[in-house]
Sequence to fold (633 residues):
Amino acid sequence: MKQTHAFQTEVKQLLHLMIHSLYSNKEIFLRELVSNAADAVDKLRFEALNDNSLLADDPELNIIITANPDDKTITISDNGIGMNEAEIIDHLGTIAKSGTKKFFEQLTGDAQKDAHLIGQFGVGFYSAFIVADQVTVESRRAGQPENQAVRWISKGDGEFTVETINKSKRGTDVILHLKEEEQNNLLSDWTLRRIVKTYSDHIAVPILMKKAPEYNEDGSVKTSDELEAVNRAQALWTLPKNDITPEQYQEFYRHVAHDFDEARTWTHFKVEGRQEYTGLLYVPKRAPFDLYERDPKHGVKLYVKRVFIMDDAKKLMPLYLRWVQGVIDSNDLPLNVSREILQESKDLDAIRAGSVKKVLSLLEDMQKNKPEEYAAFWKTFGNTLKEGIAEDFANKERIASLCYFASTHQDNETQSVSLADYVSRMKDGQDKIYYITADNYAAAKNSPHLEIFQKKGVEVLLLTDRVDEWVTSTLTEFDGKKLVSVAKGTLDLGNMADEAEKAEQKQAEEDNQNVVEIIKKALGDTVSDVRVTTRLTESPACLVVGEHEMSQHLARMLEAAGAGNQIPHNKPVLEINPSHLLIQKIKSESDETQQNQWAKLVYDQALLSEGGKLDNPAEFVKRMNQLILNTPV
Ligand code: ADP
Fold:
């Protein structure tokens, strides 16, 4: 019995978009369908490891493409895993990708921009509707009897039908009823052959088509119904590098990564020794939609001796390299390896460690030899790569060298300063790398904590990404130089402070003992201490925390994330600038109530200028107005 189902709303939207934005790229439909067919064959080969009978009736795995001019159809058949009724309804009626919501939010309605987004999201099966006005899918799951096959039909408008049919062979036939305007072009074997060669040559399964016509000696045409493979049908990563063109690497990338775009770069390596494995790993140009989802998909597929074992193999790459795409093919792991076994596998640990090093070398090479490419890479994946400093202890220094930051050395927020750049510009006598963390660039750049560094021409790194707090808590040194927050601890300029300045500081402390006491009394236990500083040249005051305490910025971030009760409530120290007129005003004020009001104003300002939130903003406004207007409190 035929049942009618409606597509999930997102599928309807995707179909509409696909048809309207990808028509200039229509040939990709074949690549996508062949790619799905190849995946289906891979999956069957894997299941057959445990149950060889699945292959018995039809052991030669392949994909067959035929043009049927009489019916105006093209059929892409595979003898892979197939789908049962529930699977076909689920797989070809809904989208189950993480990041789907984000994808739909980003759509603009501008066909060209959206075409890129769709590409990034992955076009897949639905691209069939770019060239077809009806698609019929007939599928029989491996292991199911002949009369338990299923037929799925849709015109791509909003619904599809499903019915049970007989199908003599396992696997899936995708039958495209071509739109009238496509028939001329696509019904030609020659065109199909060219498209397959262009996009799918790297597919490891043989793609069979009817033999090309030949000419007899007398000039007549000899046609035959025999099939021949039109692709190379060898796993690309097993070939020597010299035999692979950049275009072939890119086409393979599109297949493994399900990406529409090209890869930015790749590394192809073979490791021999205790563990033997081959890797072909790519750095994409764009970030996937689920990059920051809770359970992001990993991009590296595991093969054992050319047999596909699993995708989304989280153990093959650390979380901070979750965007790396490609394959790792091991010669030593057992073929029946499961996710559970992988979890414990020491062999896999070695493969992963080796592969991570290859990726880091690839990035180092790009950083050194193609700085512009690297800058573009950094913009896309820098934030996640940085997580590696905290996540991957063994490679901490290497990853740190690959990181770029914004800094006071330049006057825009581009992250383009490496720690090595910073070190090379350090002043005579400077032995530390200074940084500040803040919610955003403007807050960091204008922080009062930077004043003395500006005066002395010392560079400060401006860290404004969420992961930066985490990064700086792990990366305490680089190249033998300590990383120091300018908002923590007492100001220590090391050898950069000359004797005269030290004497000046001492004198200032003595001269301002009194005002320090006044402010301390006024603020009570809001602060842990009040002291005189030379770090300020323009602002009246700033807040600092102890060297080993959580920064105010991190405390605010945790609070915003709802982890307020986990924050240790360390009180900050208020540091004052004795030469500022406001501090002098407090000093010269005789009325104690007035002194209190000024002191509180100074504290609130210090909190505001580092991006903090006032407990009682209305009171602050009231107090400031009274002080400005000099009205009684
Ligand atoms: P993707 O391939 O990116 O997952 P598609 O929309 O192309 O997305 O396909 C959706 C799902 O449908 C696939 O993940 C697969 O499970 C199933 N599928 C598609 N084509 C085939 C096929 N030829 N054989 C078996 N399953 C298929």
